[in-house]
Structures are given as structure tokens and as C-alpha cells.
Automatic annotation (TrEMBL):
InterPro entries tied to this protein: Alpha/beta_knot_MTases, rRNA_MeTrfase_TrmH, SpoU_MeTrfase, tRNA_m1G_MTases_N
GO function terms (MF aspect): RNA binding; RNA methyltransferase activity
Protein name: SpoU rRNA methylase family protein
Pfam families registered for this protein in UniProt: SpoU_methylase
UniProt-listed GO biological process terms: methylation; RNA processing
Keyword annotations from UniProtKB, A to Z: Methyltransferase, Transferase
Protein source organism: Leeuwenhoekiella marinoflava
CC annotations in GO: cytosol
């Protein structure tokens, strides 16, 4: 029988331990996400995989906000974040810092997520777009590559928080495998 673990048995990091821990070299970029619950969920996923930072761009709300905080469950206290007026400004900042920038979108010549190779010690930034319009074309044009999450159903659409969870787990598992 598998006994469910108590919260006290989960070996959770304190805020200080999280901030001092070696981070996974990934920055999540949110391109005009309108749902504060989605933003909070992305913070939680970023916390789960020790992601370096979350960049909030355009219309994205910023912590502290009660609707972000409600969903983030404290992850806005652990995960570093920055705000940019435009996503293109964030992409420029990341490229200057040596990050490879990948937009997650359905586009011509997109690389399927399962086929995407991560090089050891590569610094990655992943852009997730607006719930309705996706990643802006100008942002796709400025990205180094476009990744697509394979889907075989009829909708070909994930919620942004679900997309972030899928991609972050994929990247994290590939990085762990490389190290």
C-alpha cells in the first residue's frame, strides 16, 4: 500500500533555501497573459522546477495581486520575476545575456517539443503567448526557434498554464539527463 506523504515529509525548501539553490537555467517569458490565475500557476510550475526567473510582459499583471497570489501559493516569494513593457524588450534583454529564445506556438517549421535537443549548460528562455492570440508574430520573428507541443486531438490548444507545465517538465528532464 502506498501511503500518501504528509506535507512535513516533502522536504520543501524554505524561501531562503530556494533563493540560494542552484537554478535551472531557464527563464519563462509571458507574452501578454491576461488571466491572473494562469500567471500564478506558471509561478508555481517555475517554483517546482527551480526556474531562474519569470518575465512578465505587456498586459501581464504583476505580484503582489490577490488573484496571482491565490494560485501561486507563495511561489511569487521564491521565484525571481521582472516586468517589461513589451515582450520584444524582454527578448532583446535575454539575447544580450546569452539565452537561446524559444517561442511555444503552432507555426510553420516549428520543432516538436519531443524532438527539441537541449545542449549541456545552454541557457534557455521560453515564451508563452496570450490565451487567445498566442505569441505575437513579431516575437516569433525575434525568437531563435519555435517549439510546438505535439497534439493529436481535435482542439490543438492547451491552457497556457498547462503548456508551461508540459514544457518546463520536458526541459527540466532533458537538462537533468544531460547532467
Amino acid at each position: 500500500m502506498n501511503r500518501k506523504l504528509k506535507n512535513s515529509e516533502l522536504d520543501r525548501k524554505t524561501v531562503e533555501e530556494f533563493k540560494e539553490a542552484k537554478k535551472t537555467p531557464i527563464i519563462v517569458v509571458l507574452d501578454n497573459i491576461r488571466s491572473l490565475n494562469n500567471i500564478g500557476s506558471v509561478f508555481r510550475s517555475a517554483d517546482a522546477f527551480l526556474i531562474e526567473a519569470v518575465y512578465l510582459c505587456g498586459i501581464c499583471a504583476q505580484p503582489p495581486h490577490k488573484d496571482i497570489t491565490k494560485t501561486a501559493l507563495g511561489a511569487t516569494d521564491t521565484v525571481t520575476w521582472r516586468y517589461f513593457e513589451s515582450t520584444l524588450e524582454a527578448v532583446e534583454d535575454l539575447k544580450q545575456k546569452g539565452f537561446k529564445v524559444a517561442a511555444v506556438e503552432q507555426a510553420e517549421d516549428a520543432i516538436m517539443l519531443n524532438d527539441f535537443k537541449i545542449q549541456a549548460d545552454e541557457k534557455l528562455a521560453i515564451i508563452f503567448g496570450n490565451e487567445v492570440k498566442g505569441v505575437k508574430q513579431k516575437v516569433i520573428d525575434a525568437s531563435d526557434c519555435v517549439l510546438e507541443i505535439p497534439q493529436i486531438g481535435s482542439k490543438h490548444s492547451f491552457n497556457i498554464a498547462v503548456s508551461a507545465g508540459i514544457v518546463l517538465w520536458d526541459f527540466y528532464s532533458k537538462i537533468i539527463k544531460n547532467n
